[in-house]
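Filed under: proteins

Residues; backbone shape codes:
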Amino acid sequence: MTSSSTVQERRRFTRITFDAQTRLYQGDRFWDTQLQDISFRGILIKRPADFSEADENAPFEATIKLIDAEHTIILTLHLAHQDSESLGFTCGYIDLDSVTYLKRLVELNLGSPELLERELSALLDLD
């Protein structure tokens, strides 16, 4: 069942399909995987084979290497949903440098400064 807040969130944040090398961390464990999509509110990744060893209630950190490999987006995340092929996370924290890289990525993919401003406004309106 999908909650109305989840549906509203999907409408407020455009998911950008983006294939990037991603490493998911929890404590001293890590999983290498692929990013499937990203938004200002979270990420969707390919489910790692040994993810069953993770604590689904504890926070995660993800590092996403951008195409130039010099820049990385770093996010603190919480598992929101999962299935046999993918994991969806909501963003709990993102540092200023990562926000800058993510903003540019979204801007390039949306192709419209107005859409970008709408998404940034929606991000600031979250509780």
Notes: The radius of gyration is 14 Å. Residues 20 and 35 are 5 Å apart (CA to CA). The beta strands are 16-26, 29-38, 42-46, 60-65, 72-82, 86-94.
